[in-house]
Specification:
CATH topology of the largest domain: Rossmann fold
InterPro entries: AAA+_ATPase, ABC_transporter-like_ATP-bd, ABC_transporter-like_CS, Mo/tungstate-bd_C_term_dom, ModC_ABC_ATP-bd, Molybdenum_import_ModC, Mop_domain, P-loop_NTPase
GO molecular function: ABC-type transporter activity; ATP binding; ATP hydrolysis activity; molybdate ion transmembrane transporter activity
Shape: globular
Organism: Sulfuriroseicoccus oceanibius
Pfam family, one: ABC_tran
Radius of gyration: 22 Å
Mean pLDDT: 90
Bound molecules: adenosine-5'-triphosphate
Strand content: 35-45%
Keywords: ATP-binding, Cell inner membrane, Cell membrane, Membrane, Molybdenum, Nucleotide-binding, Translocase, Transport
Distance between the termini: 29 Å
Order of helices and strands: EEEHEEEEHHHEHEHEEHEEEEEEEEHEE
Number of helices: 8
Structural class: alpha+beta
CATH class of the largest domain: Alpha Beta
Strand order of the largest sheet: 7-8-9-3-10-11
Low-confidence stretches: none
Length: 357
Amino acid sequence: MSIELKLELERGAFSLDVELQIPQRGVTGLIGPSGSGKTTILRALAGLDRHRGAVVRIGNEVWQQGRGFVQTHRRRLGYVFQEPGLFSHLSVRGNVEYGAKRVAEGERKLAFDEAVAMLGVEPLLERNVGELSGGERQRVAVARALASSPRLLLLDEPLSALDDDAKRGILPWLQKLHRECGVPMVYVTHSVPEIAAMADHLVILESGRVVESGAASALLVRSDLTLAHHGEAAVVMEATVSAHDAAYGLSRLKSPAGDVTVVGTELAVGQRVRVRIAARDVSITRERQEGTSILNRFDAVVRELAADGDAQVLVRLETDGGAALLARITKFSADALGLAIGQRVVAQAKSVSLLVG
Ligand SMILES: Nc1ncnc2c1ncn2[C@@H]1O[C@H](COP(=O)(O)OP(=O)(O)OP(=O)(O)O)[C@@H](O)[C@H]1O
């Protein structure tokens, strides 16, 4: 099942011409520079703007085609904007209840309590909206959207108005949502780390056109796209906690790249998580080195070498487990190692972060 959008429009110097087909599950990240048309696409999906000739379908439901147009309030959407837009005269409870009341009881898929628990807003329920931090407000906004049992959740740069600390605070909640709620989401952002943390599928936009659309894991490592050259470029993969080493406070995980060790033992054995390995944290050696403090090492083959600025090289590796890894190293080191396509090497990851905890 998929979500489809066909949209062509002109607005002065800006023109948009897109034909999208995205999965009706998981998170689709919509990324592109300012003015590339991301919000325009979300608004068309939501039915907030009615563009002539547009087609919007979700699964086997038609939201817009020809003269047919389903009004926004009948599309059963959750929409979360940059600014949370909560009702300031209502408490947190009142705001989330408002979301729940938007849907008839028979159609309610997510109970009020579930929406509240999923975003961890129980302790805030009796507070006034004015007494919340920016991050808390945004969590309440997502809980309110979720309480309306949406068929689709649209998130338009939900973290962009927050400072870095608040962003770090809310991302784990959004990831939990991603894992547990089962509502498809379209997530607009400029941020590569947010995309890496959240998206299963990715649509890259530029000047009103789709540059690429596909699995996030594949697009994040494509050296011909700008994402891989971003300072925060990273690969993200699913992993399962396989064992704890209580004596050293470590957990071992099975990932497509091979076994991974992370600090902390809070995660239950068997739990599925996502791990992120940043390109700048991966170094390359020709052989397995003894006497290193680095715990995570993967046997791999060099698949691609691409210039990354004047002094650096982006190396795409394929581990023996079949997973892609990115390493950003200096040109100097690449030459010193004599790196070539097809060469067997060892990738050492200085740090592996857990995205879902
Ligand atoms: N109501 C409007 N009237 C005229 N032009 C508009 C209107 N809304 C947006 N635009 C123009 O349409 C283009 C796409 O805007 P859109 O908001 O979709 O971009 P965006 O990718 O979401 O940008 P940002 O990341 O800055 O939010 C821009 O050139 C913008 O100036």
